[in-house]
Structure formats: structure tokens, C-alpha cells
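Predict structure. Chain length: 421.
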Amino acid sequence: MALLLALLLALQAPPPCADSAACRAEAEAAAARGAYETFHDLAWRAVQKGRPNDPALMFMLARAQALSGRPDDAIVMLGRLVDLHAPVDLANPDFERVRERPGWAALEARVTGTPVPAPPASAPPATVTPAPAAAAPPASAPAAPAPVAAAAAAPEALDFEPPPDLRPFAIAHDAVSRRFVIGDAPSRRLLIVDEVSRHVVSYVSAASAGFLDDLTGLTVDDRRGDLWVVSAKGSGTDASSVVHKLQLVSGRGLGEARPADSAEAVRFVDVAVASDGTVFALDAAGGRVFRLRPGARALEVAHRLQARGVTALAAVDDRTVVVASQNGLVRVDLTARTAQAIKGVDDLGGFLSLAWRNGAVVGVQHTKGTWVVARVALDAAGTRAQPRAILAASASPIVGTLAGGNFFYLADHTIRRLAVR
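Prediction complete.
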């Protein structure tokens, strides 16, 4: 049975491709034979492996989204091409079904430069829109594609109109598609904020992804195009949790992982991914670090902590993590199975999120009634902290994420960017 399952999984997986050109060729071959799901996966890989904001690759991905049953994603991708002032062939037959979607008229108006028809006066304004509906570019806008470097520059501040009762628990950045994924606790769903159009789009719901009662953490694996989400239900001895794997570009569920031993209560509060693809999940119920090795289907206990009140973790690599608790930070060596408190002159408790970059942890800390973005550099051994650097502060709750050399944080419906060395 196990051999049969492995064979089925192998047959479902798209073939590997070495570079963007190979992925593109294999994607078009899949489209020609009508294998549209494979076409979509290979087109996404081509976008990942190609240069940022390549119009030809983005247009191919939009076609793949349309043919594989993702019409709203196709409209979003075509709208992003319009933002880049790239030519868009709306007459392409691959978009036949996409033309029936509500967002098509707004997209067509942007491409042709004609005004969007005004909605009836009685129609209520929509907070979460199904597709970009930005105003058409002025007549003097250049027809040639904008330089990629300029298009890829992240804004210092991005304002957006939030849906009612938005209470974000986490945020992540999708650098390839230039958008943010925001987890909304009350609605138990994920939202997308487009970095260019600033539109808010409903992305993944609990019903479609199989999330449990509470969404508690998320992270992006941009190297592989995956989105990892942890959800939980129950409390105390009845707590249980799941790690969900989704395709980043579409939100399509790719699988889920559960602890191998379900006898103990588990409540995941954070998730992190190492550079090699190892996934770590932090259990607040039992004070444990769980690990999902690349290719594995079940979570294993990598380390059991003495610290209680754990809140966040960062992956240094596939063998080392830093864990935040109410009392401070702990460096965990998973190979030696040791955990050592990180000492410093500052209070290192209260971190709600953590990330690792260049020998330092960066994250959101709640201290003395204020939410701050703090950077804490560590010594070579990783057990002693230099004085903490406060990068930003807010009187209201914030969530943040590290993406490359930038830290993005969301406060008061504005996403701001900080350069982090």
C-alpha cells in the first residue's frame, strides 16, 4: 500500500525542470496535451526561476491559471501586467472563461483606457474585491514595459482599505507576485493585498483549506513557492493542531501534516521554514518543537523545551532554531538536543514573531504596553545578545515578517517597510 501511494504521488507531481527556459518549454508542452494542472505548476516554476516580473512568464502563468480553473487568479496576474505597462492580449482564446468573471470588465477598461461603467447607486461598496480595479493609466503612460528594477522596488508604506473587523495574526510577503498574505483571525481566512494596486482580495478560507477553529501562524517558503499555515482547535488536554501546505500562487491545498503521536495535546502557535525546506512548528501546549523533514508526511518531536509560554520561533538552519517565550529567547541545538537561554542586558521576553538574518533575530515584541520591531544581534555561539535595537514602535498591535533584507510590518491598516542589515 505504501509503495502504491508513493507511486500515485509521483505520478501526480509535475516533472522537474532545471531552469526557467526548461520549465517554460515543459509547461507549454503540458498545455498542448491538455494537462492544465501540470501546465499551471510548471508555469509557476518558470516564474520562480526566471527574472523578476518577466512579462512573458507572467502572461503564460495567467493563461495557465485560466485553463486550470483559476479565473480570478488570472485576472490578478493580468492586472499586474497592466501595472508594469506590459502588453496584454485579452483576445487570447485561453481566457474564454475568464471573460465571464465580474472583474474582467474592470481589467478590460484598464487595458483599453476606457472608463469603468459606474455601478448602480444602490449597490453597496465592496470592501474585499474579487480582482484589481485600479484606475486606467493616463494617456501619456509609456507603452513599453517599465524597467524590472524599478517595478520591483517595495514601497516604504502601503495603505489599503481593510475588510470589516480585520484582526491580523500574521503577515507574509510573496516577492514573486509582489503581494502580501495576511491572516485574519475572526474570519478564519487569508487575504491578499496587492503591492501595486493595493486591492484586498479574499485568498483562502477555512472551508476551502480545511483549517481548524483557530489560525495561529503562517510563513512563506519563497524558494519552493509554498505557503505553510498552522491551525488549532481546543485547549488544554483537548488541543490538536495541523500544519497545512498550500501553493503560494493560488492557495490550492497541497497537503497537511499532523504529529505522529496524537496522544498528547498539541497547539501550534508558529511555523518556520529552513533554507533546505525543513518545516518547524512550535507547540505551546507541550513546549515542544516539531519538525517536518523535506518529503516527510508526519511531524516528529525535534526537542522538548523546559520553557513555558512559548510564542514564536525562527529557523537558523535545519539544525538550529531560536524560540521565544514569556521569559526570553532560547537557542535550541536539535542535533545535540540542548537548549540554552540567550542572555543580554535587555528584556528579551514578549516576542510575538521571530525571524533570523545575518546572526540576529528580528521580530515583533510586546513590551510595557507597546509593540516594537526589534533586532537582537547574537554572538558567534548564539547564546549572548548585544543591546537590542528598536526599529519601529506602535501603540496598537502589529504583525510583521522578514523578506530578504526588508522587514514588513502591519499597523493601523498600513504596511511599512524597514531595511534590515
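Summary: Confidence is low (pLDDT under 50) at residues 1-14, 119-152.
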